[in-house]
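Deliverable D2.4 — example input (structure tokens):
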């Protein structure tokens, strides 16, 4: 029997991880039937990003479930905004990370569920039902991956230490260009062994699994990052913004196996 949790950090309830995984199952039951559906309705938000009825329906269901089971907790979702709770706990939700993929029939999309306590994400669940995969972690309990109904396996980042052996996922060229980091990206890609843009949640999960060594992206928000950070950290990795600050609200994130973190960060910011 795989041990799913080891310790319960301060502020976490013993059943928070179980509850978060139940939320992921609820999200999957709403989003997956709508995936590739010919009747799916979609539009553009004010910022030009795509939103579908699946995004909204999923978030509304998760928000209702959280408000019913954890009425004292705060909530922050990409589609419905923020509700302030009575304490220091806040659930952060991205109902469908990778909405454009979802709309186009690319299976790299999923729901991100995080619990933040005192401003720090301490629990994360990432569910990608079209891939049949789910990942989760809570502080002190390790990071885990489950494929379908198989037994969960514990995750560990890679042991790569040299830039010429690094496999890097850089997400979107456009965001690097808009933030003035395109030259740094091109120089970095020339140094590493392999560069790809796997995109969205999957890049971070591949990092936690040890298949990638570094991921960096710009123009991101707390709901894009809060769930993936505990998983990467509990797998032994490091997450900061490009200035080295531990944050899920700086608008960018550098996540690595830890061994090459400062080497890559220094090249992005020089």
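Example output (designed residues):
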């Amino acid at each position: 029997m795989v041990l799913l949790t080891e310790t319960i950090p301060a502020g976490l309830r013993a059943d928070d991880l179980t509850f978060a995984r139940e939320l992921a199952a609820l999200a999957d039951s709403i989003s997956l039937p709508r995936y590739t559906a010919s009747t799916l309705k979609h539009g553009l938000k004010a910022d030009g990003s795509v939103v579908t009825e699946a995004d909204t329906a999923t978030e509304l269901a998760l928000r209702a479930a959280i408000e019913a089971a954890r009425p004292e907790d705060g909530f922050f979702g990409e589609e419905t905004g923020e509700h302030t709770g009575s304490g220091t706990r806040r659930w952060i939700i991205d109902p469908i990370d990778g909405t454009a993929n979802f709309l186009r029939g690319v299976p790299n999309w999923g729901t991100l569920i995080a619990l933040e306590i005192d401003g720090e994400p301490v629990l994360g669940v990432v569910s990608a039902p079209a891939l049949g995969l789910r990942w989760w972690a809570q502080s002190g309990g390790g990071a885990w991956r489950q494929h379908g109904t198989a037994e969960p396996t514990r995750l560990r980042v890679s042991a790569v230490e040299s830039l010429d052996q690094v496999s890097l996922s850089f997400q979107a060229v456009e965001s690097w260009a808009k933030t003035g980091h395109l030259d740094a990206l091109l120089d970095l890609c020339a140094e590493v062994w392999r560069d790809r843009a796997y995109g969205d949640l999957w890049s971070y999960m591949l990092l936690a699994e040890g298949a990638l060594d570094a991921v960096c992206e710009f123009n991101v928000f707390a709901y894009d990052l809060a769930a993936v950070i505990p998983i990467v950290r509990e797998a032994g990795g490091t997450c900061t913004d490009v200035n080295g600050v531990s944050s899920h609200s700086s608008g960018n994130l550098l996540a690595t196996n830890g061994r090459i973190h400062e080497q890559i960060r220094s090249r992005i910011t020089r």
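The CA atoms of residues 155 and 211 lie 11 Å apart.
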